[in-house]
Amino acid sequence: MKYTYGFIADGASADFGPIGVGGEATSVHSIAYGSIAAVVSDTGNGDVTSVPKEELARHLAQHQFVSETVMNAGHTVLPMKFGTVLDSEVQVAEMLRTNRDNLQALLAEVDGLIEIDVVAMWPDIQQVFREIGREEDIVEHKNRIAELPPGRSMAERLGLGKLVKDRLDDRKRALEDRILPQWEQVARRTVRHQTRHEAMIINAAFLVNAEGRDRLEARVAEADRQEQGALNFRIVGPLPPYSFTTVQLHRARVADLDAARREIDLAERITPQMVADAARSAMRRFHPDTDPADPNLPQKFERVKAAADLLKRFCPPQGLDLRDTDRPEVLLVEPVEAP
To answer: CATH: 2.40.160, 3.40.91, 3.30.450, 3.30.70. Which one for 115-240?
Structure first.
């Protein structure tokens, strides 16, 4: 089996050393098809994610280490979602063949670009809470709670907690609105990630080229000077573009695709245009409005629509031959959807 880390725009095979995911260090190498290649290593485990938590963390760290090693070797890396395993080198080559155009386009989008992550935090969150606690309306709220008899202050305490959180969020938004736009100006794209705890104000990823990296780091340094120790800043990178173009593998059984093409009256050899034409014709023919008296049409229409959607998604630009009985499934590589 082949554990897959991602893709590079290189038609030559390469060896990146014995750094693969797993209990034993396995050789990481590339499998090329035309002008693109998949970065893989051998594995005896078809599911590296169903392991104890500590082992899972080690696998994830190693997955990222491999991707970053390949990037540092001079390649633009299109990262694959953690935990992707294929059956064999033949299946890897088939994945590359059927997804070639899409992979080339995605690699071109990030050619020469890297990800830089920047975090901004309060160094002392308790000090921030003390400052909020001295605000006039917060003090008044505390005084009201102190005057209430025991057992009758729960609602007021909950209200105070919400008010304090709102004030903390207001401070975070004000800082983010003041600092982040300056950084975003030098990036091709930005992803604002969720902050992971109360002290974290900014948790963002920036897609930049070499010049953009220098300018971003200079602007972070300038923000650090302006804040005069009130905030801590941390830069992580360069990284492969994890936040921007990580891809994942989807599988469809050939048997299911064959059933779908029969649902819309297609031959075994199909192309995207043939699928689009047949889907349009079938959906017109079986639309419930064509015969409102037929109670079976709505169900038939939904089956036709589902079949068409499946075929449109998995039929590659070069077409698909469903007579190929040696291939049990069709593989589709797509960007991970943003949460």
So the answer is: 3.30.70
